[in-house]
């Protein structure tokens, strides 16, 4: 029998509850005791925890957010705090800790491993999908769906007024969300980190593309999906720049936090459930310092060090598809 603790850290993601549920139920199934630490790494510092029983997690698979709460914990960068967390875990006789979070949280685990001698297992829970060793992170599929649902509505009003809209989506510093959302919403233009040149070149490209579209289609709606943190000073500034550069009027729209919330879609619920069970299996097999992922539908284990160090690349075929679809000039030639 082991004492297993779970925490969620960093940005919350739909499906984290499904992961908490499956870790807990699988651990109980094998006769372990389960504890949930609250507010991410803060809970480790403050000894904020609760025992988790079947009735605590029975009915949470369909909820967004996380019942264990999440937090950013900048003080965890301090070695004294990492040591304190390890001491607290040891005093409570916690044999294994499962952390559900993004690559920042995994850095926290690596730091903790310097002082904590129990098992450490990571589950990738972030809407950004920027974690190596897994095709998708828990929450990504739901965030894409939430965004396209919102953008479909924006398209309706953009169509009615034949307007240009720039929609900013999340993704920190990677383009998984922007590219997938852009493709799924049929956006005319997607601005991602992966194919962004510089603001001057991009401004010219966007303006030319909007004008080409207008020539070819007549007045119509035009949607740009842009990754956050990409355009200097944000998408409002991009609209100002387009007006100044080419007299193009466009409306900015920042989707913001709605992308993080909501009931998880089936894919996130199922993947999180599989990963949670795999985490407990790994603990039973005395493994440590690994992240559980899913590649081509099968469970995949990688070292946490690799998940942190290696930057996952956006699928090249997706980028190619997007570039081909957007190149109206080339399409016009083919049509002739
Ligand atoms: P998301 O990308 O979805 O927001 P994340 O896990 O990457 O998730 P971060 O805010 O980057 O989110 O990290 C979560 C927490 O992990 C931080 O608040 C901090 O407590 C801890 N952490 C991050 N980097 C380190 C580090 N280098 N050393 C120790 N702890 C860290």
Automatic annotation (TrEMBL):
Q: Which coarse location class applies to the principal site listed for this UniProt protein? A: cytoplasm
For this protein, the record's PANTHER family field holds: ATP-DEPENDENT 6-PHOSPHOFRUCTOKINASE (PTHR13697:SF4), PHOSPHOFRUCTOKINASE (PTHR13697)
Residue stretches making up the Phosphofructokinase domain: 3-283
The prosthetic group or cofactor this protein requires is: Mg(2+)
GO MF: 6-phosphofructokinase activity
Instruction: Give me the reactions it catalyses.
Output: beta-D-fructose 6-phosphate + ATP = beta-D-fructose 1,6-bisphosphate + ADP + H(+)
Its source organism is Thalassotalea fonticola
Q: What is its EC number?
A: 2.7.1.11
What Pfam family does this protein match (any one)? PFK
Keywords from the named record: ATP-binding, Cytoplasm, Glycolysis, Kinase, Magnesium, Metal-binding, Nucleotide-binding, Transferase
Keyword field contains Cytoplasm: yes
- The EC category is transferase
Among its keywords, does the record have RNA-binding?
Answer: no
Which SUPFAM superfamilies did the record assign? Phosphofructokinase
Q: What is this protein called?
A: 6-phosphofructokinase
Pathway the protein contributes to: Carbohydrate degradation; glycolysis; D-glyceraldehyde 3-phosphate and glycerone phosphate from D-glucose: step 3/4
The record's subcellular locations are:
Cytoplasm
Q: What family does this chain come from, according to its entry?
A: Belongs to the phosphofructokinase type A (PFKA) family.
